[in-house]
């Protein structure tokens, strides 16, 4: 069953949920995060992220369930935006209690459409640890193709894990 979601800009009121999610150390293995964020840092980040994408080179949107009482269920972001080559990285996080219900899939559909048809991006890419089967399945289902493997690229605990590099070209 496809879930209905909306993507929206971060608001100052989102600092508490962002604080909770960004400081969840269990999620740090999927990002480049190595230290916690303060609420003040996140308030400043929210102000900066809402600048023009050509200035900030990134875009972070809150994923909300649609309905009478929308609730935040995750974050989707565009990073390393390169306007010359028209490419950017994409990352997504759906809170654990909302996994498996189609929210990530619906949010990624909206985001890809926005990136390709509104921003005019030529390609999106992402990096996924080879043991993260949920993310691999999600991105491959959306047409992302594995174009390379970075051997022992990410340190997870005391081990190094391979990371897949995936690309989606705008062929529309």
TrEMBL record:
Q: Which InterPro entries match?
A: Acyl_CoA_acyltransferase (IPR016181), GNAT_dom (IPR000182)
Record's SUPFAM superfamilies? Acyl-CoA N-acyltransferases (Nat)
- A Pfam family annotated for this UniProt entry: Acetyltransf_3
Sorted alphabetically, the keyword list is:
Transferase
Residue ranges of coiled coil: none
Q: Which residues form the N-acetyltransferase domain?
A: 5-172
Please verify whether the record's keywords include Transferase: yes
Molecular function terms, GO-annotated: acyltransferase activity, transferring groups other than amino-acyl groups
Protein known as: Spermidine N(1)-acetyltransferase
């Amino acid at each position: 069953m496809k879930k209905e979601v909306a993507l929206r800009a971060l608001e100052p009121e989102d600092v508490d949920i962002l604080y909770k999610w960004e400081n969840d150390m269990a999620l740090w293995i999927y990002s480049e995060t190595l230290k916690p964020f303060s609420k003040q840092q996140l308030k400043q980040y929210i102000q900066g992220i809402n600048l023009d994408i050509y200035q900030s080179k990134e875009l972070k949107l809150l994923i909300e369930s649609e309905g009478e009482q929308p609730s935040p269920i995750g974050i989707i972001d565009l990073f390393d935006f390169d306007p010359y080559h028209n490419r950017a990285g994409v990352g997504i996080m759906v809170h654990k209690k909302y996994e498996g219900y189609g929210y990530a899939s619906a949010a990624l559909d909206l985001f890809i459409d926005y990136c390709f048809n509104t921003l005019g991006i030529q390609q999106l890419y992402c990096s996924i640890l080879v043991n993260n089967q949920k993310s691999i399945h999600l991105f491959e289902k959306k047409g992302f193709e594995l174009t390379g493997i970075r051997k022992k690229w990410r340190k997870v605990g005391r081990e190094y894990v391979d990371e897949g590099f995936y690309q989606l070209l705008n062929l529309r």
